[in-house]
Amino acid sequence: MRLFDLRDPLHALSLLTRIPAPVDHARAAERAAAAAWAWPLVGALVGALTGAALWLGLALGLPPLAAAAAALAASLTLTGAFHEDGLADCADGFGGGMDPARRLEIMLDSRVGTFGASALALALLAKAAFMAETAPALTVATFAASGAVSRAVVPLIFRLGPQAKPGGMAATAGAPGWATVVAALAVGGAVGALALGWRSAGWMTAAALAAALATRAVARARIGGVTGDVLGAAQMAGELAALAALAALLSPE
């Protein structure tokens, strides 16, 4: 299999979003791990469109929180709540099971329980708060950067594993190689730097990486490793951490 493919951004788009992509979906599934270097590009696109929805809401005179709600709705529509579903499943499994086998069983249940609903509500509330406080001039760049860096760190979690169960997406797709992991981090950092500058991108990437690694550590303790849901939760945690880091940088001394 080729290390990099020019169609990988489209393969990544078909995996991570509901945006129609002109790809062979069987081929895209085969390239799921190898195309991980392009995940930050998809994150930047989703983030930019989300930021544009927020900017438009503010331009139309909506209160900041209402504009943030509209932007979140746009983001969830674009991705099909792909990462949010992983966060909710992890919260239900980690919080509700007494042993790793039972936790994995709960995570496979399509129903959302109390832990999952609470985690999802808190995550969306936090993201809406960051959106509402973002200066309109920085909106699109901010969320393009956070979308990129938060997806740039996920291939590393995928690579580090270990896989918690056979048969899931994280196991059947195969882990990305180290070259792909490094490329993803480089692409995410470059996108963040183009959007906000190297200093902001560096702090956001460091924060996202710390949050993603913490998510992996919790997953290893609770279920013995990583699943596709854990990767989704790592992205969500990384994005919130990246936004928090940027907010700290921008806050007045």
From TrEMBL:
Its main location: membrane. GO terms for molecular function: adenosylcobinamide-GDP ribazoletransferase activity; cobalamin 5'-phosphate synthase activity. The chain crosses the membrane at residues 37-58, 112-132, 138-158, 170-195. GO terms for cellular component: plasma membrane. InterPro entries: CobS (IPR003805). The keyword Cytoplasm does not apply. It comes from the Bacteria. It holds the Pfam family CobS. It is an enzyme of class 2 (transferase). Pathway: Cofactor biosynthesis; adenosylcobalamin biosynthesis; adenosylcobalamin from cob(II)yrinate a,c-diamide: step 7/7. It is found in: Cell membrane. It is a multi-pass membrane protein. Its EC number is 2.7.8.26. It catalyses: alpha-ribazole + adenosylcob(III)inamide-GDP = adenosylcob(III)alamin + GMP + H(+); alpha-ribazole 5'-phosphate + adenosylcob(III)inamide-GDP = adenosylcob(III)alamin 5'-phosphate + GMP + H(+). Keywords: Cell membrane, Cobalamin biosynthesis, Magnesium, Membrane, Transferase, Transmembrane, Transmembrane helix. Its cofactor is Mg(2+). Belongs to the CobS family. PANTHER family: ADENOSYLCOBINAMIDE-GDP RIBAZOLETRANSFERASE. Joins adenosylcobinamide-GDP and alpha-ribazole to generate adenosylcobalamin (Ado-cobalamin). Also synthesizes adenosylcobalamin 5'-phosphate from adenosylcobinamide-GDP and alpha-ribazole 5'-phosphate. This is Adenosylcobinamide-GDP ribazoletransferase. It comes from Rubrimonas cliftonensis.
